[in-house]
Please model this.
Amino acid sequence: MNHIRGHSALDILLMNIASYVATMSLNAMYEEIARKFMNVKTLQELNELIVTVVKHTGIGDRQKKGFLNSACGISKIGMWRAPGSLVEEHKSDPRHILINSANSVYTIWL
Model:
């Protein structure tokens, strides 16, 4: 049985479907920026990174700063990294929380 820091897999259920798009998106960024996304520990840190992307999108220099030029890719990375942060933040919660990561972004190319 898998254990997460003293909790059995029956205590915490994490469902995280990391898509190929998230991996490709990380690979398309500057290595330093991708590392920041990979090393987030809290949702606050993740939110701050995504807010930075949005800020640089408004300025128009998102790619020059090393961020991905894809809102879909950034959202996939966020949905990929968020569940791990949630598990860390709630690992001592006695309620047996189910964390299910799902990204609602769907694009149709005409």
